[in-house]
Amino acid sequence: MAMPRLRIPVCVETGVWFALKRRLTESPISPISPPNNWSRPVVRAVRPQVDGGRRPAKTTVGDYVTVEADAFVDGHESLVCDVRARHATSGKWTSHRMQPLLDDRWRGSFPVAETGLYRFSVRARIDEFATWRDDLKERSSAGQDLTVELRVGADIVERAAARARAGQRRMLELLAESLRSSRSGLHQTVSPELATWAPGTPVSETLAGVLFGDLLGSVMGDLADPDTGTTSEVYGAFADVAKARFSSWYELFPRSTAEGAARHGTFTDVRRRLDYVEQMGFDVLYLPPIHPIGTTARKGREGAPRARKDEPGSPWAIGSPAGGHTAIHPELGTLADFRSLVSDALARGIDVAIDLAFQASPDHPWVREHPEWFKHRPDGTIRYAENPPKRYEDIYPFDFESQDWSALWLALRDVVSFWVEQGVRIFRVDNPHTKPFAFWDWLISSIRAGSPEVIFLSEAFTRPRVMEQLARIGFTQSYTYFTWRTSKWELETYLAELTCTDKADYFRPNLWPNTPDILSEELQTGGRPAFMARLVLAATLSSSYGIYGPAFELQEHLPRSKGSEEYQRSEKYEIRSWDLESPANLSAFIGLVNKIRRDHEALQFNDRLHFHPTDNDQLIAYSKVREDPEGNDVVLTIVNLDHHHTQSGWVTVDLDVVGFSGGVPYTAHDLLSDARFTWTAGSNFVSLDPLVVPCHILALKQEDNPSAVTVGAS
Amino acid sequence: MAMPRLRIPVCVETGVWFALKRRLTESPISPISPPNNWSRPVVRAVRPQVDGGRRPAKTTVGDYVTVEADAFVDGHESLVCDVRARHATSGKWTSHRMQPLLDDRWRGSFPVAETGLYRFSVRARIDEFATWRDDLKERSSAGQDLTVELRVGADIVERAAARARAGQRRMLELLAESLRSSRSGLHQTVSPELATWAPGTPVSETLAGVLFGDLLGSVMGDLADPDTGTTSEVYGAFADVAKARFSSWYELFPRSTAEGAARHGTFTDVRRRLDYVEQMGFDVLYLPPIHPIGTTARKGREGAPRARKDEPGSPWAIGSPAGGHTAIHPELGTLADFRSLVSDALARGIDVAIDLAFQASPDHPWVREHPEWFKHRPDGTIRYAENPPKRYEDIYPFDFESQDWSALWLALRDVVSFWVEQGVRIFRVDNPHTKPFAFWDWLISSIRAGSPEVIFLSEAFTRPRVMEQLARIGFTQSYTYFTWRTSKWELETYLAELTCTDKADYFRPNLWPNTPDILSEELQTGGRPAFMARLVLAATLSSSYGIYGPAFELQEHLPRSKGSEEYQRSEKYEIRSWDLESPANLSAFIGLVNKIRRDHEALQFNDRLHFHPTDNDQLIAYSKVREDPEGNDVVLTIVNLDHHHTQSGWVTVDLDVVGFSGGVPYTAHDLLSDARFTWTAGSNFVSLDPLVVPCHILALKQEDNPSAVTVGAS
Question: Which of A10, A304, B360, B633 has the fewest CB atoms in 10 Å of its CB?
Fold first, then answer.
């Protein structure tokens, strides 16, 4: 009862148990026939794999996706494993050979050339030739007769020849012939043509020389029988523009940009501010909501329940008779002014990011036009925002589950599309965790299907699983707990979680030392050293970071009240006039740090962040590495976490991580002070005075060892 | 453009991204409509989940399956989460309330009553009532007017009443009425009927008393709107018989059971040996292959390449003119004798396990009848087993990929079915890692579809990923690296991997201090203390363990040669006569250890294994706990790992793990020596002399605290 085995390469993982499950429910037990397709290798535990493959991992154009998998086979045969990848719009799979790590784990990668979805899978094939060759070596060493085994090898090579392209085929046929006719075993001389396949010089003329050469091994690996292969399920990686990975954000309130007198700033004032922003080296200029502000229950200075006359209100109370989410607050200017700002900024490489705050003031046109988009209480009133017992009467949340929900969703999608049409490619999303995940999932998918370059930053300061889920369903970048992670232990464990775990496959951190909502205790009390240290930490720990200015660079540090994280005279509720000429202004320092980020590719990625030991808990030291054939880029940052005292200690750089050899000194060039130190293996002394500069950002270079060193992932 | 939202409870995880993926390939980009079904809660990261849910986790009858999941929702609403479970043959789902742990993780469990596949999922619903009640408390504390909010609550209760069964409905309707008519707010007196719903005594007569009672919270949780729910995908757990989890194996060679003179032992001799096996407390008697042994290239004493005349050969060289895998080796007796042995053993609660060694001697009938089931070399000979340069000429492996593979697979399945029909329910599978995974997957599914009680033990001493995969695809129990884990650090890390990681969901360890193939260095050199210590470690670290006897209990310790793990005069190649009356025999000690295992349920599970600190690296200490309403079973084992010297030290029992309170002393009753110690919180002194007994197996009891204490999982 011969049953031909269908040679369909499938994942052996899926078939049989499901068959059993079906049986157990559908029919009484009876003998089950063997599966009609199967293959011997197992491929599993593929990474990156977000939500079991239901979601794409994140990558960016210009990067590569590193893929790992467990691959193994019964018995002792060798495997050859490849990553197979293709862009979703391309029909053609490319293959990329993987290398074995420990314990049947394999690693390979594929390059990312354009935005959009890439698909990839891992294929393992049995390398019959490598297996045979290894065995042959053992048999030969043991002095066994090889006659029959060489004929076995000839058959293997002949079958591979049939799969090869013409040039290779000729060589393989010669080899098969040579194996079949061999009388003096492995020492037999081969034809001069075949001998050119041997490795090294002089050309090896024996069968052994050809057979055990790397070239033949590689060729035969490529030609391994696809019928012996198992291919994993197909996973996805969504390629964003590079700015999704490497970005420097600057937030300001446009209404506070008027120079001199405290009049209401305009987009024209913001355009004048672009030089300043560019000099500091930022490439995203994020504006809080620019829409008309409601007057009903408008909040006053310092968040007072009711505004006095002429107080401007919170920009997050969106909507007035002048319009809603697609309108411009009249005092800021016109839509044309906004477009001019966007294009002026873009000309400098700066993206203007706007705020998506999906909520309405009681004066929003939709309150009248679409009362069904809001929640009503039994007394007929619309339910305002609350966090009982706190009330936010100037804000009406939308009801994402109303009878008319899909019309609301479409209207909100149209809001985003509108701004994309105005040239906005980056959105900072306000409180996404208070709207349904399914809404964001759909909205982001929908926008990015047509505009894959659009970036969404999730402003969710909430529970960890919720923040992760927002990233998983599509948010490009995410705010983090960085603001509250201050000790060495906190920073090391949190950044390790963000960069070294599976979370790094989908969650892109954007570190903010301050926001209009958060003036951290450290900045309140730490003075200039705290501002410098927190900036350097944010800018070197993470490839994306941001500050809320000019409050940050002007070292604004007074809280509304003791124990509060609210700013005194918060710009959320009033117009501020900032003295950029103040000697307190840290803009030059910030500009230098951002220049270092641009000059050093290592700081533009997070995948190779590694913390190095120091003998002083107030000194934190970490490196980032970017491999490059012309010399790896290695940046070591050391920060004094004590804002009040000089701290000294010994830093032990893990040379394996930075790819240096132990015997040779290396240069540590401080990119902030331009000082140069000669360091050696073991511990090196560091002393950082917070009153000068509380940080080193050191470019490390081992001169005797300038070429690229392939180093293991940290 | 109102689009009704389909209220199909689905996992929101799956829909949208796949829709996008399809779009990207199938059609040009265009606006995408909102999803047509979605729900707000997210349920993910369900555990147990083997291979992303493609495989069932393992459980046993009489146990319960503990299920965990992340469940959360946007906003601040409360959730109510349930495990929903059903046996595959039952249409009815049962619900089991989950409890919140930290960080949006939930845990619940369902009981396992019969063998076969259980399906389970996790459902999270929004608990509108609990959310409203929490908010009400805040509003009330802040002195806000509650009039409208009580009407909101009345609506919630009324909607729940419509879903309630009659008795509850009446109460809920009364409550809704009371909420709606409340004039004096929460202090209003309720009707006497409704007041009975209040918690505690005296019966609370106010609206607040009823409203904030646990009973109402629980009832309203059960009645939470199913339309707000998200249900995870359905996962599986396969329930084995209890012996799959808790088993004590004894292996012997039947041909060595003849008493007195060195004649060939028979099944009748084995039946005589049953008293002995039963007295030692074993419940699985495992016999190496019992089939006819080939004569071609038969191996001789000490594994010599050729047997001399009258040497019996290896039982793993299966097949002779007398038959193959369904035949009995003539010198052992008849099939009827075997069946008598099986039924005599079963009458004592002992299962006879046989060996599935799927390979053939050159004399196996299939070599003649089915030459296509074997691999042939170019010279026409059949390929014997090899591990180049080693040769095993007495063994032909099957070719599981031959042109006629499915007939071979079916024939091998028929072999298993044949022995199941003879009453065999347990199979020890020889070298499963040298046969295709797909074969075992199919074979085990196929057999267990009809006979879910059958147990397969995987004898794979190979790479970790391969051993895991065999367990994942269906092997009930697995051999481990225990034999080579000897130091405290090795034992602690390895057992933690086996019992505390996801591996525990599918990999059931069976610990063997020795096997006919492995006489460990420790047993060679450690004397009687080594045999006692290794036995106690195996028997108390794992709910399943086994020994190869009588070699083990007679302390057989001589290797074939220095540095070898092979036994001198291995029973694999010759018949041995064992002197069970020897004073060296440890059978009484073994019987005591197995009795302790039977008496203490804690030792019959692995899920609550916890290692406690000691200040001496030669002393290892660990507890197992089984919760019981009538008093938890707590067993603490301490073993001296130094077989040559008395070791003393301080053991610090982690009281949280065993569920004891710190202020009260507790009794440690040594079940081996019957000694009783009074221990207290903190460190307790222990001294173990290997020449006496190198272990304590202590039953811990806190007399002032005899009732069950619910303690956290270790």
Answer: A304
The residue annotated as part of the active site, out of B63, B68, B278, B459, is B459
Residue A222: active-site member: no
CA A469/CA A463 separation, integer angstroms: 10
The residue from A269, A283, A459, A633 that is catalytic is: A459
B1/A117 CB distance under 8 A? no
Closest residue of chain A to B447, computed from CA coordinates = A31
What confidence tens digit (pLDDT) does each residue in A427-456 have?
999 999 999 999 999 999 999 999 999 999
Percent of chain A with pLDDT over 70: 93
Tell me whether residues B406 and A33 touch, CB distance under 8 A.
yes
Say how many C-beta atoms besides its own lie within 10 A of residue A565's C-beta.
17
Task: Quote the pLDDT of residue A28.
Answer: 36
CATH architecture assignment, domain A249-414+424-444+518-601: Alpha-Beta Barrel (3.20)
Instruction: Give the one of B139, B155, B442 whose C-beta lies nearest to A35's C-beta.
Output: B442
Architecture of domain A603-701: Sandwich (2.60)
- Whether A178 has a pLDDT exceeding 80, the answer reads yes
In chain A, residues with a C-beta closer than 8 Å to the C-beta of B42 are 437, 469
Interface touch B35/A387, C-beta < 8 Å:
no
* Active site annotation includes A331: no
Name which of A39, A141, A155 is nearest B389 (Cβ-Cβ).
Answer: A141
Query: Phi/psi at B600 (nearest 5 deg)?
Result: -120, 105
Domain ranges of chain B: 42-123+231-239, 128-223, 249-414+424-444+518-601, 603-701
For domain A128-223, the CATH architecture is Up-down Bundle (1.20)
Q: In this predicted model, what pLDDT tens digit does every residue of B125-143 receive, in sequence order?
A: 999 999 999 999 999 999 9
Structure tokens at B380: 């026409």
CA-nearest residue of chain B to A26?
B89
pLDDT tens digits, residue range A158-176?
999 999 998 899 999 999 9
What was the pLDDT predicted at A631?
A: 86
Residues of chain B with confidence (pLDDT) below 70? 1-31, 198-203, 261, 704-714
* The pLDDT value given to residue A574: 96
Q: Do A148 and B377 touch (CB under 8 A)?
A: yes
Please pick, among B68, B430, B505, B601, the residue that the annotation labels catalytic: B430
Q: Is the pLDDT of residue A210 over 50?
A: yes
Partner-chain contact A29 B450, CB within 8 Å: yes
Second-level CATH architecture of A42-123+231-239: Sandwich (2.60)
Q: What's the pTM? A: 0.92
Please name the residue of chain A whose CA is at the shortest distance from the CA of residue B118.
A21
Strand partners, A239: A59, A116
Do residues B701 and B713 make contact, with C-beta atoms less than 8 angstroms apart? no
User: pLDDT digits over A7-66, tens only?
Assistant: 433 333 333 444 444 433 333 334 578 888 899 999 999 999 999 999 999 999 999 999
Q: Which residues of B touch A460 (CB under 8 A)?
A: none
pLDDT confidence of residue A213: 84
**How do the residues of chain A divide into helix, strand and coil, expressed in percent and rounded to 5?**
35, 25, 45
Contact list, A403 vs chain B (CB under 8 Å): 2, 4
In chain A, what residues touch B35 (CB-CB under 8 Å)? Answer: 438, 441-442
Write the ipTM.
Answer: 0.92
Same fold, B42-123+231-239 and B603-701: yes
Q: Which residues of B415-433 are buried (b: 16+ CB within 10 A; e: fewer)?
A: bbeebbeeebbbbbbbbbb
**A430, A505, A522, A642: which is the annotated catalytic residue?**
A430
Hey, are the CB atoms on B139 and A389 less than 8 Å from each other?
A: yes
Q: Helix/strand/coil (H, E, C) string of B34-79?
A: CCCECCCCEEEEEECCEHHHCECEEEECCCEEEEEEEEECCCCCCE
Task: Tell me how close the Cα of A445 comes to any Cα of chain B, in angstroms.
Answer: 7
Residue B309: CB atoms within 10 Å? 5
